Amino acid sequence: MSHTAALPAASPRPIGDLLREWRRHRRLSQLDLASGAEISTRHLSFMESGRAQPSRDMIVRLAEYLEIPLRERNQLLIAAGFAPAYRERALADPALASVRDTMRLLLQGMEPYPALVVDRHWHLVDCNQATQRLLAGLPPQWLQPPIHVLKLSLHPTGLAPRIRNLPVWRAHLLERLRRQIDATQDPGLMTLLAELRSYPGEESASSHTNDAIAVPMELELGDAVLSMLSTTTVFGTPMDITLAELALEAFVPADAATAACLRQLAAA
């Protein structure tokens, strides 16, 4: 049996380069960032150029002001030679038992309205029975883990044919994804956006009514059309990467007819 030697891990990029990239990505000048983080512009310039090495506390301070996600904050710390500050546990870890209980409580509390929990890359983590009822009848490949929520929603063999206002809803989802990429600079999300944009269909930024307060998803279910508004809930002040990257997506009725239909489905 032959063995292939493992390639050495790539050396991390200099911390100064990473700080400069994040500052520019947030469209801040050195003066803007230095003033916001309460440090001198000279010190920031020296850190970005590599003439000064930032301390661990300084990296955390700058990352907080730049609103850098926890996963990327760890990358900054590693680049500077420090240990990561934020742990990443599997959701099944006993330490996250209270998180799992909270998610289940929130999902059940949304019944009879659909609600689901997704991770950073939009994989389904958990959902309530109302969500399962709406997904019933889809091709089996879409219901096998890992379920990817955005692909399931926009693919022509998934939910897309049942979404009456697909151009508007597609534009809404892709814009959300673009904002997420802007916040995280995650290459995986960039690849996902390219794939979703390759699916057949048009994007439309205009709503079907002039007095709409938000973009609903109009989902055909038999002879009925469910009109639902989406809401997003995240955990506040997380210190664990897994927890920071979870989001609860809930769909609430946009009209009385939809609310009645969802209650009837649950009763049946």
From TrEMBL:
MF GO annotations: DNA binding
Domain of life: Bacteria
Domain HTH cro/C1-type: 19-73
Stated name of the protein: Transcriptional regulator
Species of the source: Dyella jiangningensis
Lineage: Bacteria, Pseudomonadati, Pseudomonadota, Gammaproteobacteria, Lysobacterales
